[in-house]
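Predict the structure of HTH cro/C1-type domain-containing protein.
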Amino acid sequence: MTPKEIKAELKARGYSNKMLAEILGKSVSAVGQVINKTSYSREIAEAVCKAIDKDLLDVFHDVKPYHHSKSQLREQKKQELAQLLSA
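Done. Here is the predicted structure for HTH cro/C1-type domain-containing protein.
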């Protein structure tokens, strides 16, 4: 989904970025950045998806960090770091 579509879906359900931010204890800016796909937070992305009743990869299919679980992503990053440090 595009950021515009995500925002429209939230609005259609009577929700706002500010509501999500308040409930999650995050800034409105952080929620907006995740929706606009300029930053990522699995916690925020999953909350957005629950709010609009969609699957994570249906909404954020183009955000690669969401394609893997946190542990997979952490392991991948550890391997990258190990390669950098060994060079």
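The first helix runs from residue 3 to 12.
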